[in-house]
Amino acid sequence: MSNSTTVVHLTTVHKVPDPRIFLKECASLSKAGYNVQALACIDTPQLMVAGVPVFSVGTPTKNRMKRLLYQGRILAALWRHPPALVHFHDPELLPAMLLASLLLARRTKFIFDMHENYGASMSQSPYTRLLRPVYNLCLRASEFRMHLVLAEESYRSLCHKPHQVIHNYPIAPPAQSPSQRHNQIVYLGTIGLERGILEMIEAFALAQLNDWKLVIIGAFDDHLLHTRVRALVRQHKLEARVEFRGYLSAPEALQLVSESRIGLALLHPIPNYLNSLPTKVFEYLCRGTPVLLSNFPFYQQFFRDVPGVHFVDPLNAQEIAKALQKLAVAAPLTTEETTAVLQQYSWESESRRLIDLYTTLDVPRTTESA
Predict the structure, then answer these.
(1) CB within 8 Å of 212: residues ≥ 6 apart
(2) Rounded Cα distance, 23 and 272, in Å
(3) Fewer CB within 10 Å, N or C, the chain?
(4) In the structure, what pLDDT confidence band is assigned to residue 279 with cuts at 50, 70 and 90?
(5) CATH of the domain at 136
(6) Are residues 115 and 50 in the same domain?
(7) Which residues contact 68 (CB under 8 A, 6 or more apart)?
(8) Do residues 179 and 356 make contact, with C-beta atoms less than 8 angstroms apart?
(9) Is pLDDT above 80 for 3?
(10) Residues 178, 182, 296, 207: what is their CA dihedral angle, to the nearest 10 degrees?
(11) What's the sign of the alpha-carbon dihedral 91, 297, 263, 202?
């Protein structure tokens, strides 16, 4: 499966195809001439994603204990065929990868890709709170055994050493004629309480935008919440105007974003969100769709000069409703504004940083860059 020139991207948590892992990092590295493979949880022994072979380490599951059992298979595979580099994406893999870094010392390099502030997210439940000291200890050890890639500058405060920041900015959409905009509000992402789903429904009802639709793209993180949200929609008699599209492929989802006039990113003020940038904001802006965003100080500072970003209290449905009414009569971003956003916040520059890091680590390429 792998050899001394192979780069292996590894995840047991993220879905295939996770945009950052597969559509951005793996695809960019493959185009740059690296022999990239991936290990992930999929229902078939092997599949191809963006020209990169993905091998199964087990079936997809939300059960953490079951995922931990997969790690034995992973360690065995890496031991049999040591790759040039392992680039892994899950904090729960840290103990196993620290062990692998000892077993494969001098043969394989390791990168831990920190997608979010996992320590902060662990503080949200009693179960994961117990694991937080273990995670912090493993994170400290990883700084001495491997390299880290951080998705945001704010994560630097969690580390003792400097590490490369590679933002999760969107892939620039292909040049095309502007999409026909509909009277449509869109939300893109996992559907959860802390991501503002109840406030979205309440605010949409209060705004009384009778010729508008609210389109929700993504999967619910809880079955009981799904039932509760459906009941709220029926309570407000919004069945004909609130659409739940479920999980869609990236092209399908982003086409709906391009056709919408308002995007929503109403994250609640919990530790894991307060200082982490929501990728969906860039997806909205890069397609000319103004966005209603939580009014966290970090967000207001970061997006203060970015056109099309409007701030609200994510817990105040009345304030959100008033903002929706104002945006309903506002114009989408101009072509010039969208181009300016793309120039500053697209994956192209970030992919160059990733490739520069691999070059610095002397990871071998097998072909010339495409």
Answers:
(1) 183, 184, 185, 204, 241, 328
(2) 24
(3) C
(4) confident
(5) 3.40.50.2000
(6) yes
(7) 92
(8) no
(9) no
(10) 160
(11) positive
| 368, part of any domain | no
The two structure tokens encoding residue 74: 């992973």
Contacts of 23 (CB under 8 A, 6+ apart): 17, 49, 50, 171, 250
Residue type, 157: S
Show the tokens assigned to 312: 């609200």
> What is the per-residue pLDDT for 34?
96
Cβ–Cβ contacts within 10 Å for residue 168, how many? 19
> Which residue type sits at 329?
V
Question: Alpha-carbon distance 118 to 126, whole Å?
Answer: 15
The residues, any chain, with a CB within 8 Å of residue 157's CB and separated by 6 or more, are none
Residue 285 belongs to domain spanning: 184-344
What's the pLDDT tens digit per position in 28-82?
Answer: 999 999 999 999 999 999 999 999 999 999 999 888 888 888 999 999 999 999 9
247-268 average pLDDT score = 93
Q: Is 11 helix (H, G, I), strand (E, B) or coil?
A: coil
